[in-house]
């Protein structure tokens, strides 16, 4: 364990479908980022324990080649495999952060519209297996808003597996107006993969798909005028970029630089005819809110998640929202430079707030009252 672990009282975790992020509230910086992936040999022994090498997590997953079974225990932001998520938490505490969570406070992010049963099992596993002194689960949209130092706003949470539009008023998530879409950053990855495969750059393995994600993050952008850029590209006047693969081979990235992110605004380009654009999702969410607060929400739009980091995203989004709602509405978009980490950074802020002491649940309270206590604590 870390020699200085007594200095750290608050452990913050953000488990995403693709990445897990963790750190200490006292440090205000992310200590650990690793893929939320469990990799195990096909020929596994049933007698190996939780800390054995029956499973590989973190950096180790990319060092393993051959016949391994890969499992992402979070699908569409919902926990689907409890044994594997317990391994992820164990790895986070003892291998990444090098700390015993007993007698600490643990804050875990949770998605909007999280299932009641999932929340209750999280509390049970955390207290019964890891024994923190206090534990709480905080809405990821609320944490992103908190990081932006606002109490009211609408959070556009766009990550690997889903997109959420989360309106929040005076710190309260308006659950009835939360809108989600199964269109995600991974769909952009898939579209990029299809284009590269057609160019005979076969991207099949999980390692190669990490390369696709890196290409997307480094070279793609959102076009302010898609049709204009498309016309320029078709005439051969577009600025192409090269990407060097680990083996030294260069890939030429052309129209896909802006065509892949265009799915955010035109999901029908690849057959998502039933999916609303990000603007359509915002319209749907805001229409469910009281008319008095709609202008306030539009003035406080917060971007959260790695898929909002494309250059040009906020400018195009503002343009589309104004086209949709009209010029009489004032639209302001906050796009933090570190929006990939907005949720966990908001968790750091939450851990320092005096009001947080009123809602976090102690191990002793949970033993006495059980999971019903979760729903009686109000921030």
TrEMBL record:
It is found in: Cytoplasm, Cytoskeleton. Pfam families: Actin (PF00022). Its main location: cytoplasm. One of its GO terms (cellular component) is cytoskeleton. The lineage of its organism: Eukaryota, Metamonada, Anaeramoebidae, Anaeramoeba. Keywords: ATP-binding, Cytoplasm, Cytoskeleton, Nucleotide-binding. The keyword Magnesium does not apply. SUPFAM superfamilies: Actin-like ATPase domain. It comes from Anaeramoeba ignava. This is Actin-7-related. Belongs to the actin family. One of its GO terms (molecular function) is ATP binding.
